[in-house]
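Summary for the lay section of the report: proteins are chains of building blocks that fold into shapes. Here we show the chain for Rab9 effector protein with kelch motifs-like and then a coded description of the shape we predicted for it.
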Amino acid sequence: MWDCLDPVKGGVPVFFGGCNKSLEALDDMYYLYTETFVWKHATSSGNPPSPRDSHTCSSWKNKIIVIGGEDGHDYYLSDVHILDADTLMWRELNTSGQLLPPRAGHSTVAFGKNLFVFGGFTDAQNLYNDLHMLDVGDGPSARFSVAGDCLDPVKGGVPVFFGGCNKSLEALDDMYYLYTG
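The coded shape description reads as follows.
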């Protein structure tokens, strides 16, 4: 299950997808109101992402962007879906240029008009160490994390990628800053 902060609801965490105890991929969405610790199921419309796990979810302007993940049947995804946080309407974004290879367990950071996608995997033998950029411009939105992501306020909003695991599934504790200016 992956989350991001809803830009419209004042930073309320939004959780989309994930998997249950039977490892069945899910496509439901919930808000967690942290002041009262109350969960609320969110009903959306449009063309939502298919059930998935190990995807990313990022907030950008008044949008929430979901990218990639695994469908629960060892099929890896690279699609991009955008949720308008005002209307709760989903749409799939048709991308162009060099397409993002399917992946799960990656990390994404929305920064300025760009969404950066780093790393991920498609199986134990195919771990990615690449960086892709999706220009979301003034239109659509972005998404998610397993290796970890945040913006470092001390360094002026520089995206930070940290952790994850290697091919042997050993936890990593390294950290990288991505200077974009």
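Put simply, here is one thing we learned. Residues 139-148 have pLDDT under 50 and may be disordered.
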